[in-house]
Amino acid sequence: MKKIITLSICLLVIGVFNTYSQSIFGKWKTIDDETGNEKSIVEIYQKDGKAYAKIIQLLEKGKEDKVCDKCKGANKNKPIKGMVIINGLSKDGDEWNDAKILDPKTGKEYKCYITLDTPNKLKVRGYIGFALIGRTQYWHRLAE
Fold first, then answer.
1. For labeling, which of 45, 62, 98, 124 is most exposed (least CB within 10 Å)?
2. Which one, of 82, 92, 90, 17, lies nearest residue 55 by Cα?
């Protein structure tokens, strides 16, 4: 009986830690913070110890093949689908920061940081200068 109780407690503890130790990596549905509409599916992946995010699907009807006409440089007039919008986040405790995020709607780049709000909800903060001056979106993990 003692073994069953000990095993049950161990499994419970492992389950709790596993739930809260989920990573930022995977596919996320983005929600427009101004309209509340679903915008895209973004994949966050790791390369050389840094995190990157690219748009893999646009969800707005009629905009599936949209290009970034307001972007500058190499992204100018490139398809938004497939575009890397977060470049090189570094892990800093529970937060990933020290990178830029591109807003394809405006073509502007902002400093950003991301954190897991819950295991299936990602807080994405873009800002100018200080993190107090900016805007936050919440992305929702796609079940795979």
1. 62
2. 82
Convert the pLDDT of each residue in 65-114 to its tens digit: 999 999 999 999 999 999 999 999 999 999 999 999 999 999 999 999 99
Tell me the domains of the chain and their CATH numbers. Answer: 23-141 (2.40.128.520)
Q: Could you give the CA distance from residue 117 to residue 68 in angstroms, rounded to a whole number? A: 29
Q: Distance (Å, rounded) from C-alpha 87 to C-alpha 31? A: 20
Task: Provide the CB-side half-sphere exposure for 57 (13 A, CA).
Answer: 9
Long-range pairs for 76-82 at CB < 8 Å and ≥24 separation?
A: 80/40, 80/55, 80/104, 81/55, 81/56, 81/57, 82/54, 82/55, 82/56
The pLDDT tens digits of the residues spanning 8-66 come to 453 443 443 443 348 999 999 999 888 889 999 999 999 999 999 999 999 999 999 99
Q: Which two tokens stand for residue 84?
A: 């890397």
